[in-house]
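The instructor's notes for this session suggest beginning with a concrete chain rather than abstract definitions. Hand out the sequence below and ask the class to guess, before any prediction is shown, which regions might be ordered.
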Amino acid sequence: MVRRPAARRLRTDGVNPDFATLAHEQLRQALAGTTREMELDAAIEHIIGGFAELQCHPDVVDGVRALSEMGLRLVTLTNGATSVAQRLLGDAGIADRFDRMLSVQQAQAWKPDARAYRYALEECGVEPAEAMLVAAHPWDTDGARRAGLTAAWINRESRTYPSYFLAPDIQARSLADLASMLR
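After discussion, reveal the predicted structure:
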């Protein structure tokens, strides 16, 4: 029996590689030994390059505008680089609707570690009960709930929420749907 090398685990004990480093290393491990049309390094760069082509989901622009017009303070908290969020939201014409764009890199802990959410709360000067995390990732809404925040799960594909996570406070089909629910 041949064992594959163990994947490097995402750590939350103060070792906090940036997203690009982690993505490169994880892709190198995932693609090792696979049949590809290009060299390993070229394949990794091709995949990483795809992040620069990402666009917002169709509901995001209207949803962000609606939430902003309700007077809500909007902040991003990403496991990636803030530059990716800035580009993505800037390309969509809604970056100016956000008060802050934060990354877990400064928190020294990746989401869903509670330290990441506490970092955002401290940066924004709010208590957990005053904040809501909105995410399309169940692990993220679970992490926010465990950190004391309200959480809304955007469930665009009508998936079943994992029973092993704390349920979100709100479940919406889109960001625009969430804005309608909060009105």
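Then share the key points. Strands lie at 74-78, 98-103, 132-135, 150-154, 170-172. The longest helix spans residues 19-31.
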